[in-house]
Write a structure and sequence with these properties.
The chain is of the alpha+beta class. The chain has five helices and six strands, in the order αββααββββαα. A hairpin with a 6-residue loop joins strand 5 and strand 6. The chain binds zinc ion (ZN) (2 copies).
Length: 148
């Protein structure tokens, strides 16, 4: 089963076919062309509980703005929410946009948004990806507390 990138239509690289362990370990499909990442509900559930996932799911349905993006997994229209994260020191990060599917509870992380929260640093691509991914996972972990 292969899925297509909602931005550019490229076939997403499945976690099983990824040569990057961070992607395969976390069940993340990614786009080689735009570097976007797709996290399905199963993958998200390895990080957050079913209850919290359901809650997020509903919040995207009720409060998310419609966006011209079809879910790669189920073809529903995705919705976008602006999320503001608070750093450990209490200051707020710039808002980032997160696309979520209200039907199957998957999330799409746009490459541009990922770059904004994880600025390029010196180091190889694999290192940068691992770094971005750790930020994504941390974000997901905090999402249920940020979304109300
Ligand atoms: Zn893409
Ligand atoms: Zn979906």
């Amino acid at each position: 089963m292969s899925y297509r990138c909602p931005r550019d239509g490229s076939t997403l690289v499945s976690p099983e076919n990824s040569d990057r362990s961070t992607f395969s370990r976390h069940g993340i499909h990614h786009c080689d062309k735009c570097s976007g990442m797709l996290l399905n509900a199963d993958a998200a559930m390895s990080i957050i509980s079913q209850d919290k996932l359901n809650h997020m799911h509903i919040s995207f349905e009720q409060e998310g703005a419609e966006v011209d993006l079809d879910c790669p997994l189920c073809d529903s229209h995705m919705r976008v929410r602006e999320i503001v994260f608070t750093r450990l020191d209490g200051t707020e990060m710039d808002p980032i946009e997160l696309d979520g599917c209200p039907t199957c509870a998957s999330f799409w992380f746009d490459a541009g948004e990922l770059q904004r929260i994880s600025p390029p640093e010196n180091g190889d691509d694999a290192h940068r990806e691992a770094n971005t991914l750790s930020i994504v996972l941390e974000m997901l972990f905090h999402l249920p507390f940020v979304i109300r």
